[in-house]
Design a protein that fits this description.
seven-stranded antiparallel β-sheet, 47% strand, globular, 4 helices, 163 residues, three-stranded antiparallel β-sheet, single chain, Pnp Oxidase, Chain A, alpha+beta
């Protein structure tokens, strides 16, 4: 079977119609922290509890996720859009200022867990694999934190939306 090349612009336009829950994936190693806004994340299994996150492999700062061996997946509420924007790189804030915009907890792994995330999954990295332009992280959930239950922050048609 031969691979068919799909135009990247057409693909991105089609994916913009695919609604995704906005989340911040975080990690820490020593004094170094990293946090990135993502929509490409999902459950893999409930036994053992496992999640999957996709990150841009072209950003060398994202290597901290594999080096640290841990990450937290923090699901955002609609009123947390400014936090999503900060961790997406809008405003070009330094890492310290991004993390200063919220309160963070430390659960099992040492990855920063957003105190008021709708749900946060504190994970030990069990597999990382690069596929094309992205790195896939698979983590076994070691702890869960539930915050307030409210409208979810979604990303659809290249804009934030509340659901």
């Amino acid at each position: 079977m031969t691979a068919k090349t799909i135009d990247p612009v057409l693909y991105r336009n089609a994916m913009s119609r695919y609604a995704g829950h906005v989340q911040i994936v975080t990690t820490a190693m020593g004094e170094e922290k990293r946090g990135v806004t993502v929509t490409a994340a999902c459950s893999v299994s409930d036994n053992p509890a496992t999640v999957l996150v996709c990150l841009n492999a072209g950003n060398q700062a994202n290597e901290l996720f594999t080096k640290s061996g841990r990450f937290a997946l923090n699901s955002l509420a609609a009123d947390q859009q400014p936090l999503a924007e900060a961790f997406s790189g809008m405003g070009k804030l330094p890492v310290e200022e991004r993390f200063a915009k919220a309160k963070w907890l430390n659960l099992a792994t040492g990855a920063p867990v957003l105190a008021d995330a709708m749900a946060a999954f504190d994970c030990r990295l069990i597999e990382a694999k690069q596929v094309a332009t992205h790195m896939i992280l698979i983590g076994e959930v070691e702890a869960i934190h539930l915050g307030p239950n409210s409208a979810a922050l979604m990303y659809f048609e290249r804009a934030f939306k509340a659901l």
